[in-house]
Specification:
Layout (H helix, E strand, L loop, with lengths): L3 E3 L9 E3 L11 H18 L3 H18 L2 H8 L7 E5 L11 E5 L10 E5 L13 H19 E9 L5 H13 E7 L3 E7 L9 E3 L2 H27 L2 H18 L6 H12 L12 H10 L3 E5 L5 H13 L2 E5 L3 H5 L2 H8 L6 E4 L4 H9 L8 E6 L5 H11 L3 E10 L4 H13 L3 E3 L7 E6 L6
Parallel strand pairs: 3-4, 3-5, 5-6, 10-11, 10-13, 11-12, 13-14
Antiparallel strand pairs: 1-7, 2-9, 6-8, 7-8, 14-16, 15-16
Amino acid sequence: MNRLFEIPEINPLMIEMKDSEDNSNSLSLKSLFEEYRSIRNEIRKRMESDDEIKFLFNYLYGEFDGRLGKAHVMEQLFVKPESKKGIFEYYDAKNKRKYPNTIRVYKNTILSEKTKLDFVNFSKYPYFEKNPINDIIRLTENLRHLRESCPNTLKIGGSAIFVPSYSYESLCFPFLCKIFFDRVLVYSTLQMICVGYKGIPLKDTGFPYIESKIIKPYFEFIKSSLKITMYNNKLILKKEKDLFFDVFERKVLNAKRFLHEAISLKDYNMFYDYFENNKIEKLKEFNEYHLYELVKSNNYKKIIQIGLNDGIGASYILKGLKETKGILYSLDNYQTIKYDNKGIEFIERMKYDSNFLFVNDKIPYKYLQALGKKEDEPESFDLVVINNMESYETILLEIYFSYKLLKKDGLLIIQNIISPNVFNAIKYIDNEWEFYEKQSNISPLFVIYKKKPDLVL
């Protein structure tokens, strides 16, 4: 399952602010959340006398959700700690926990225009097992943040974290945020990431409502995420350790790759085991699995990938190409400097090197430009995959020079669309260029374009 959902564009007229909550809507997840809460409460109770359950619970939430939830995803994707400051809103002065690269402020803080911040974390709410905060109280706090705290503390263009919740009104809340931020992304059930604050305060009062059909895809995403979280917690209660650690390791590895964190030898060994022993079906939750299916189902023979990186994404492509007897051109001038050739080593270990041509002697877009001038290369590639987060201008050049190399019905896939540079490049080609036609996405982290033939660049 994909761990990320991006809220689509929304017309402000579609949202109605009502005076009170309405529990009648069928899309509310409050009952499922109550079931989840009861499981967590049971775990908490048994942790007091059962060290094994305590170990499993702390392992899951200390090593995975505790690290990759809260501010970590935001910091990794949108905030450069060395150049920007963040802010955590605290409920009282007693909380003395320190967070790196942040400054401390308290509830109702008002900052001047010069001192407003790039990043505000509004996820600091009373923990529900210890303080039984209900869903509407949490939503009311989120609405207060949108109405008061964002204008008082957040820079124009800044980013903020909110906590997703489960009533119908709460499921409408991300769509309301979309009016006030350029982008709104929900990461599993852990947090809602809002990027590009527009500086407009929420003036309406009450609770947000929007048509059920509009929020239905988001509802299904949150429902699936919540069920997976409940499943993991049930494994803890049942002490099914082998299954628990199998699921856990895949979750951590998926999250590492989502955040572009370095993966370890243990991680590589896990991937090798899945690929080598035909257990690739277990990796469906990883976004690159879609690339394997795409290559195999379309019988692609010739592909370019820009950004080999750790080599895992290329392995999915190459597994498909081994079946179709094709070849992958992989361009990466940072492979030695940044990845210590680990991507190439993994490809060799997988014995995919006979289907693999690695190029690192040129800047990728210059190689694409030179390749397009060769007699037999133009219009010979089935697919180009751009998998980097370089500068906005570099990504545009890679997209531009890929056009000539693609077949008439060839596809261009751009990964890492949550990266600001990639997102802005996509926004530009959608508005300004006419030689690619956007296709249905196979993953929330990809965008797919089909080449429009017979256009002269």
